[in-house]
Write a structure and sequence with these properties.
single chain; 184 residues; mainly alpha; two-stranded antiparallel sheet; 7 helices; 2 strands
């Protein structure tokens, strides 16, 4: 195995572990929790190529589905699929490589911080879209609860926005410093 491949695998594993750890740092709220998962997903998007971000999130997703307690609240297993918040996991899995791809495209045109903020906002929007749609369908079709569109938008998006904006700003600032320290 080449040195570059080893470094890439180590970084993917490191970010997978950080995302799992971030999932356990929680502040519970009804129908979910504030976690630090998204912080590490955004950092992975800023620091890893899109392919490595995809592999990182695929590993995280599969670890949780086979039963490793890597999701919020030390949960995991196939029963996670019927959790109203599992859409956020899917959204972050899609957002990480998308953030990476967009960040690299924007970084060539604007400075790194605005590129990180813009690509991170796109990643947050993607995560919220997956989370809200999945949450709506699980709550209505699986849990048989009547929920309004406003309830879904508030519960799965707006409530998290201030905390996620702070995570984005931190990740945008930290990624520049971390990128300089990563081995080439």
């Amino acid at each position: 195995m080449k040195h570059g491949s080893t470094k890439r695998l180590i970084l993917c594993a490191l970010f997978c572990a950080l995302i799992a750890i971030g999932a356990q740092i929680t502040i519970p709220v009804p129908y979910g929790a504030f976690t630090l998962q998204l912080l590490f997903v955004l950092l992975a998007g800023f620091l890893l190529p899109a392919r490595d971000g995809f592999l990182t999130m695929l590993a995280y997703l599969l670890l949780g589905l086979v039963g490793a307690p890597v999701y919020a609240g030390f949960s995991g297993g196939l029963s996670s699929l019927v959790s109203p918040t599992f859409g956020f996991v899917l959204g972050m899995a899609a957002a990480c490589p998308a953030v990476s791809w967009l960040f690299r495209r924007l970084r060539g045109r604007v400075r790194p911080f605005p590129a990180a903020v813009l690509s991170g906002l796109a990643g947050i929007a993607m995560t919220y879209l997956f989370g809200a749609v999945y949450g709506y369908f699980v709550m209505t079709l699986v849990l048989n609860q009547a929920v309004s569109p406003w309830f879904v938008v508030w519960t799965f998006c707006l409530m998290y926005l201030p905390f996620d904006a702070a995570k984005l700003l931190f990740a945008a600032v930290a990624s520049s410093a971390l990128a300089r320290r990563l081995p080439r």
